[in-house]
C-alpha cells in the first residue's frame, strides 16, 4: 500500500520517516519530497508497505499524531491526477 504523509517538519528526513513506519511492519520504501531547485523538504512524503494490514494500522495510529512538534496527516495515497494542459499537445 502506498501511504501519503503530510504536515511534516522541514527537518524530517527519509530515515525518520522509515523509522516511524518500521514499528508497524516492513517498509519497502520511504521518500521525502524535496523542492527540485533548493533541495529543501516540501513537508510531505510517501511510504510503501507491502503488508496492507500493517499499513492500515499505521495510517490509523499515526494520523494526527505529533511528530517533530507537528500533527501529521497520514492517509492512503491516491493515484496522481493528470493536470489539464499537460498532455503534450499545443
Overview features:
90 residues; alpha+beta; Alpha-Beta Plaits; two-stranded antiparallel ribbon; 22% helix
CATH 2nd-level architecture: 2-Layer Sandwich
Query: How many domains, as an integer?
Result: 1
Q: For this structure, what is the CATH homologous superfamily? A: RRM (RNA recognition motif) domain
Average pLDDT for all residues: 91
Low-confidence stretches: none
Strand content: 25-35%
Structural class: alpha+beta
How much helicity do the residues have? 10-25%
Radius of gyration equals 14 Å
- At the first level of CATH, the class is Alpha Beta
Cα(first) to Cα(last) distance is 36 Å
Number of DSSP-assigned strands = 6
Describe the structure.
With 90 residues, the protein is of the alpha+beta class. It has one domain (2-76): RRM (RNA recognition motif) domain (Alpha-Beta Plaits). It contains two helices and six strands, in the order βαββαβββ. It has a four-stranded antiparallel sheet with strand order 2-3-1-6, covered by helices on one side. The chain has a two-stranded antiparallel ribbon with strand order 4-5. It is globular, with a radius of gyration of 14 Å. The model has no long low-confidence stretch (mean pLDDT 91).
